[in-house]
Every structure is written in C-alpha cells, then in structure tokens.
Amino acid sequence: MRRVLGLLLLLGLAEIFTIVFVADRIGAIPTFLTMIVTSAAGAWLAKRQGATAWRKVRQTADAGRLPAVELVDAVLVFIAGLFLLLPGFLSDIVGLVLAIGPVRKLVAARALVVMAKRVRVSPVAGTVPGFGFGGPSAPGAPFGRPGDSTTRPGWVRSDDIIDLDAEEYYIDEPRGEIGRG
C-alpha cells in the first residue's frame, strides 16, 4: 500500500513539474487550454470507444461465451479515458497510448496472462466458479450445450416451467389475500 501511495505522489509531482515546464515554454493560457482540449477529447474518446467495447462484451456474453478478452478491453478503454480526463500531460500521453487499439490489445493480452495465473478455473471446460457461466452454450440453452444432460439442472423439470407474457399474467386476488382461507 505504501508503494502505491508513493507512486501516486511521485506521479502527481511529475505531472506538476511537466505542467510548469510546458507553461514556461508556451505560456500559462495555452497550457491551460491544451489541458482542457485533451480532457474534452478524452471524454469523447472514452464515450465512443467505451460504447463499442461494452457492445462487444454484451455480444460475447449473449453468445454464451465468457467475455474475458472483451471485458479487459472495455476496462482498458475506461482507464485510457480516465487518464485523458485527468489534468496533466503525462497522464494524457499514457491515455493516448492506451487508446491505440494494437497497444491496448498487447496490454490486454499481458493482463489476461497475469490474471490467468491468479484465477482458479473449474474442471468443466470454459467455466469459472461463481460466475454463473455453464460452459459453451447457445442462446436458449444457458446451462450447457443443447441436447446434453446439462442443458437444464436436475432439479428443474420441464413441467415446472411456465412461460407467460406480461399481458397474460394478472392476480385475481388483492395482495395479502392469497393463501388465506
């Protein structure tokens, strides 16, 4: 924890030094305007690339696959946008470099390797304990491949499933009266 706090203090001091250095070279007002423009560009970039990244996360999850790569990419887009929003030139450089797709893919690959060493994977192919993914599946078969014995948990019988649309469902009795004889 001390290491992280020391690093943050060092980065803050480096940002202040860089801002003072740039202001000495080009002037205070151009430096201030440059920081505002980079923050606005960072907000725009984070919104644009972030929406695309989260759409990929949803598409992968809807396809029944664990969206690990897509999720790491979305988090890195968020971090890039955060760096671009922070005032300062060093954080802007880091944010811009992280916003470049190929660089982000390299960082994501490295992050996935590091995370894979720290995550315990279930013996069932493609599952991570506690995340609710039952392995490769198709839409409509959330518990496994269609047709195999894991398509539905054993405690769910086919006659237990009642499919209702919102228009078809209504309560005949007022609340509090159900179950009273």
Structure report:
- It is elongated, with a radius of gyration of 25 Å.
- Helices cover 59% and strands 0% of the residues.
- With 181 residues, it is an all-alpha fold.
- The protein has helices spanning 2-26, 28-62, 68-85, 89-99, 101-118.
- It is built from 5 helices and no strands.
Provide the fold topology:
Elements: H1 2-26, H2 28-62, H3 68-85, H4 89-99, H5 101-118
Helix pairs in contact: 1-2, 2-3, 2-4, 3-4, 3-5
Short description:
With 181 residues, the protein is mainly α.
Main attributes of the structure:
181 residues, mainly alpha, 2 domains, 59% helix, 0% strand, elongated
Judged by helices, strands and strand pairing, the structural class is mainly alpha
Q: Quote the beta fraction.
A: under 5%
Separation, N- and C-terminal Cα atoms: 62 Å
Count the domains: 2
Round the mean pLDDT to the nearest integer and report it. 75
Low-pLDDT sequence parts: 125-151
In which range does the helix fraction lie? 55-70%
Tell me the total number of β-strands. 0
Report the principal-axis shape.
Answer: elongated
Number of helices: 5
Order of H and E elements: HHHHH
Largest sheet: none
- Rg computed from alpha carbons, rounded to a whole number of angstroms: 25 Å
